Request: fold
Amino acid sequence: MPRYRHAVTVRTVRQVFPTDSGAVDIDPVDLVHDEVRQTDGTRPWVLMNMISSADGATTLDGASGGLGGEADRRLLGTLRGLADVILVGASTVRAENYRAPRTPDDRVGVLRATSGRPPRPRLAVVSASLALDPTALMFRPVGPADPPPLIYTATGAPGSARDSLSGVAEVVDAGTGSQVDVGLVVADLAGRGAGVVLAEGGPSLNHQLVAAGLVDELNLTISPLLVGGTAKRILSGPTLAAPAGLRLDRVLSDDGYLFCRYLLG
Ligand SMILES: NC(=O)c1ccc[n+]([C@@H]2O[C@H](COP(=O)([O-])OP(=O)(O)OC[C@H]3O[C@@H](n4cnc5c(N)ncnc54)[C@H](OP(=O)(O)O)[C@@H]3O)[C@@H](O)[C@H]2O)c1
Reply:
């Protein structure tokens, strides 16, 4: 039974796994917000969210948007609503023209407010080059009290780029030379009080997070499309030292899309 009742449209999706309680039409907001996301307390829960075509492509014409549908966008909004921080690689920010996170729709926003969290998650970007346009949409705060995006970089980042971003972002060194250490990034986010980090890609950053054993959950949307081509899979990088096992936790379906939640570790 939903805990909050507001004058907003509730769009249900079908739960197809597990089926022990019978396949039911549910509002993902209730489901996602009731799921437990707790680590041992030393670092935040890291939730990776990606969409791929049925043949594994993560982009169509260079971006992920063409793979998605309405239910996927709603689920992404719901997942964003439970995040303290959205972590993303700079190539994704550039390819997808990232904006500052918006206020989640009404019910998700209410859930945030009642749990004492800020209205919107904070954006955190990983970049060695700092090749980010300081006038880009991601640097335009939605609310006057919003903290600026975090930019995690390494000591070798160009000074001129640091200077140009210093007024619109908090630039943090988390590695030496040109290599950001994702372990330091997650540790820094823990120190800032982040409880849930939503890792939105791209595949290169995903690979590093998984290789470092820092991912607790994968939310994978499988789009009902075959696209061919050479687009990256959800992890891009060398074969992992050992495959990361996944436990299927639940599957939702809407309009041919599958929304799979896996747990790692
Ligand atoms: N299907 C989906 O759900 C989905 C989700 C996200 C993205 N995408 C797509 O994926 C593509 C981008 O993914 P990608 O794998 O190419 O790139 P990415 O992971 O988004 O970003 C890679 C960039 O992030 C920075 N970076 C990452 N790790 C770093 C490290 N350890 N040290 C320093 N810098 C680091 C570097 O930025 P600098 O170049 O600035 O140094 C690097 O070039 C886009 O086409 C996007 O549309 C799809």
About this structure: The radius of gyration is 18 Å.
